[in-house]
Design the sequence.
């Protein structure tokens, strides 16, 4: 019987030590760094401009129409979509975007995307200059 006691004690100590193990340490994944692209250009009456860009991983994409010059009474069509190398296929759009308008979407993986700036017949001038900022992973 003396042999069983030490074995039982060793077994008890092993179980107690295992109960204190917190398992693997969980860490929060580091989000990918944010990339900022800035696009500028000019849109004529009934014209359009497309700016492709690449997203490296899943995440939030926010495009801001930073400025329209001259701004007074001018609005533009402002859209974001997928880029196939030829066409910007619209996913999000604001047909009456003024300066400071934003579009926000989320990608599920790396992707080729695009911004399209266009006149829907709303320009009060023959042409306007614009600036767009896109923040993405």
Sequence:
């Amino acid at each position: 019987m003396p042999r069983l006691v030490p074995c039982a004690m060793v077994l008890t100590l092993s179980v107690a030590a295992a109960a204190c193990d917190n398992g693997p340490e969980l860490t929060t994944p580091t989000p990918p760094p944010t990339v900022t692209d800035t696009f500028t250009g000019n849109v004529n009456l009934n014209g359009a401009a497309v700016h492709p860009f690449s997203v490296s991983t899943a995440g939030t994409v926010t495009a801001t129409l930073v400025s329209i010059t001259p701004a007074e009474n001018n609005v533009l069509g402002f859209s974001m979509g997928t880029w196939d190398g030829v066409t910007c296929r619209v996913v999000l759009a604001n047909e009456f975007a003024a300066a400071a308008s934003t579009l926000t979407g989320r990608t599920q993986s790396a992707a080729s995307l695009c911004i399209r700036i266009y006149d829907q017949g709303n320009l009060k001038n023959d042409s306007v200059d614009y600036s767009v900022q896109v923040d993405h992973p």
